[in-house]
Design goal:
This protein has 106 residues and is mainly α. The protein has helices at 11-16, 18-22, 28-40, 42-62, 69-83, 93-105.
């Protein structure tokens, strides 16, 4: 997505790193660049607002649930692979955990 206007920081870069910005997992200088971009670019600001609202909703609805340690490890491993630019298998990490839970319950 791009608004078609030239910006110091390209829309695609902002959207590619939107969750890092939302989670404050980027250097302060990059945060400042993104904030400047949002002031100039209403489509990106709208996307940011939507993602921020979804994040708040998920936290409110699911924030108290305990996540199984093995599932958390798998998800974090996939995030690390994606950040490193490696290929990630199309396997759903939540299905394996659900399959094991059902097998354990039997």
């Amino acid at each position: 997505m791009s608004c078609g206007e030239p910006h110091e920081t390209d829309c695609s870069e902002v959207l590619d790193h939107l969750y890092e910005f939302l989670d404050r997992e980027m250097p302060e200088g990059d945060c400042t660049k993104f904030e400047t971009h949002f002031e100039e670019c209403s489509p990106c600001l709208e996307k940011y607002g939507l993602e921020q609202a979804v994040k708040k909703l998920v936290k409110r609805c699911c924030g108290q649930d305990d996540v199984p340690t093995d599932l958390r490890s798998k998800v974090m491993g996939r995030i690390d692979l994606i950040r490193a630019g490696e290929t990630v298998p199309d396997q759903d990490v939540t299905v394996q955990g659900a399959d094991r839970s059902a097998t354990a319950a039997e």
